[in-house]
Amino acid sequence: MNARIDHTITSGTFSLDGGTWDVDNNVWVVGDDAECIVLDAPHDPEAIAELVAGRRVLAIVCTHGHDDHVRFAPELADLVDAPIWLHPDDRVLWDQTHPDRAPDAALSDGQCIAVGDTELLVIHTPGHAPGAVCLYAPGLGVLFSGDTLFQGGPGATGRSYSSFDTIIESITGRLFELPDETVVHTGHGDSTTIGEERPHLDEWLARGH
């Protein structure tokens, strides 16, 4: 296989429910030397375009609709001439940031995205956001978890359109079905594995986040 995963970190803000916070976001680019997909377009579209390095971009795939993941999606789409894909359940969040620009296509649970030699399976994992998705590349042994699962627990569920019970159901019912050795590349912070996180479920349930 000629698959490659490229990564950069962008810095900016996240705003929701009247608050704004400084954040660093992971951006993952998956594909080969000829084509790729970009996972999320949070900040600094020029830096993301540099990571693409002239390859054909099949899509900008949004793991969810929070503004720190989609704020520069339209600008990046213009830069690299690619469509924007988002799960329709997150239009309520997308529209807060881009009321005049709709995504180009809808992601769906079970959808298979082929890029180069790699196939990525879309897994709908609501909880952090109603339309949150993860992308699983079984051939690479990698899960791109967005803000659903992090090193140390589930994504935040204390704001609008989120639910702790729902994210736990998504993680236990969908993500913990994956092999222990599956590497989890997250939307923020360090990567982890399914096997590293699974034993801590009771701790998360006890603390409630």
Account of the 3D structure:
The chain is 23% helix and 35% strand. The chain has 209 residues and is α/β, with parallel strands linked by helices. Helix 1 (45-52) runs parallel beside helix 3. It is globular, with a radius of gyration of 16 Å.
Give a count of the beta strands, DSSP E runs of length 2 or more: 14
Q: How confident is the prediction overall: mean pLDDT?
A: 97
State the name of the first-level CATH class.
Answer: Alpha Beta
Helix content: 10-25%
The radius of gyration computed from the alpha-carbon positions, rounded to a whole number of angstroms, is: 16 Å
Strand content: 25-35%
CATH architecture name: 4-Layer Sandwich
| Unreliable parts | none
Q: So how many helices?
A: 7
CATH superfamily placement: Ribonuclease Z/Hydroxyacylglutathione hydrolase-like
Placed side by side, the strands forming the largest sheet appear as: 1-2-3-4-5-6
For the record, the count of structural domains works out to 1
CATH topology, by name, is Metallo-beta-lactamase, Chain A
Order of helices and strands: EEEHEHHEHEEEEEEEHEEHH
Shape summary: globular
* Distance between the amino and carboxyl termini: 39 Å
Major sheet description? 6 strands, mixed
